[in-house]
Amino acid sequence: MSLCQRLFAAAAIAAVVVVSPASGQTLRYANQGELKSLDPYTLNESTTHAHLGQIYEGLIARDKDLRIVPALAESWETPEPTRWRFHLRHGVKFQNGDPFTADDVVFSADRVRANGSNLLTYVAPDVKVVKVDDYTVDFILTKPNPILPSLWNTWYIMDKKWCEEHNAVAPTPAAATTPSYASLHANGTGPFMIESHQPGVKTVFKVNPNWWGKPEHNLKEIVFTPIANEATRVAALLTGEVDIIEPVPLQDIQRVNASGTAQVLTAPEIRTIFLGMDQSRDELLYSNVKGKNPFKDVRVREAFYKAIDVEAIKTRVMRGMSTPSALMIAPQLYALSKDFTRPKYDPEAAKKLLSDAGYPNGFELTMDCPNDRYVNDAAICQAVVGMLARIGVKVDLNAQPKQLYFAKVLKPGGYKTSFYLLGWTPGTLDSHNVMHDIMGCRNDPKDPSRGESNLGGYCNKEFDKLTDEVLQETDMAKRDQLIKQAFEIAIKDYAYIPLHQQALAWGVSKKLKVVQRADNQVLPYWMVKQEE
Question: Is 498 strand, coil or helix?
Answer without folding.
Answer: strand
